[in-house]
Amino acid sequence: MKAILIGCLASIFFSLTFILNRSMELEGGSWYWSASLRFFFMVPFLVLIVWMRGGLADLFVKMRQHPKEWFIWSFVGFVVFYAPITYAAGFGPGWLIAGTWQTTIVAGLLLAPLFYESIRTTDGVVKKRQRILLHSLWPSMIILGGVFLVQLEASTGVTMLILLGSVVPVVVAAFAYPLGNRKMLELVDGSLDTFQRVLGMTLMSLPWWFVLAGYGFVVDGLPETNQVAQAFIVALSSGIIATVLFFFATNLVRHQPQKLAAVEATQSGAVVFALLGELIFLGGAFPSFIGLFGLLTIVGGMVIHSFHSTKVPSSEKSTTKQIS
Fold it and tell me: How far apart are CA 186 and CA 194, in angstroms?
């Protein structure tokens, strides 16, 4: 339950990404700068935190041991995740982006066969490929049903171009984020703390952000002061606070696929907070009964998922014991 609560708290800070990215887009800011500035601002904060905790040396040792893996999965978990999110902000409101993002709940479950878990048996420790947890899929479908209702209520007048431009990139991001995060969890296997892992992934993704920023400079010039300020807030709230909270929560249950799926499901709370943020700060319309029912369905699905994650189905009970 601790990991679930931390995940819910992270979703509050994550929601600012959707609100402020949309705000920057409405003010004419380039998505190239919106994406790259966030990670540029994250670096000094993370370096200071990890340095104060005495973890820089250990981090660089781990990164030198597997540089290719760090580079690949940092690209997937950060670049392929965040670049499409900021790009999609130009095609639709924050609630639509946040709602589509919730496909990451199911994505996390469907990605399970790409990973292995350590099992202690009478013959010793063996690696076993994880299975798709169908019994954990139905609470996620409840959450997605609520997301669908929210989008159905608010999608009046949205064109097919907007839907494609905002949905397809976000679906790609929804798979990339848990894939990159879990692959890095598997690689470090608890040998680095959350701050070290986020800093390492940020540093390894910097070459891509410099390329994107350079292209943005050639195409659109330097960003406006207001965009820089909003990107700084996104970096602090979503890039530092939310990411660290979420990675910490997933690290707590990294060897428990069912609970890991439940923690990833807490991101659905970002839909609620993004919608409220648009109502307050961007003058969005208040949802109708269908929209409100959708929000309640999302919250209800999150509650069901959190309680369901504490139960182990009889089909999974055996004499084997998973290593924690």
Answer: 13
More confident residue, 188 or 123: 188
Instruction: Please check the confidence at residue 272 and state whether its pLDDT lies above 90.
Output: no
Q: Taking phi first (over 0 means left), then psi (-120 to 50 degrees means alpha), and beta for anything else, what does residue 221 get?
A: left
Cα dist from 129 to 44, 114, 115, 121, 257, whole Å: 38, 7, 6, 15, 11
In a domain, 48, yes or no: yes
Structural domain total, the chain: 1
What is the Cβ-side half-sphere exposure of residue 152, based on CA atoms within 13 angstroms? 13
In 53-79, alpha helices (H): 56-65, 67-74
CA distance 291 to 67: 46
In the numeric block, which tokens belong to residue 283? Answer: 């003058």
Q: 106 lies in which domain range?
A: 2-315
Q: pLDDT at position 322, please? A: 37
In a domain, 321, yes or no: no
Question: What is the reported pTM?
Answer: 0.80
Instruction: Give me the percent of the chain exceeding a pLDDT of 90.
Output: 32
pLDDT digits (tens, 9 = 90+) for 162-205: 667 777 898 899 999 989 988 998 898 888 988 899 999 999 99
Query: What number of other Cβ atoms are within 10 A of residue 304's Cβ?
Result: 17
324 is a domain residue: no
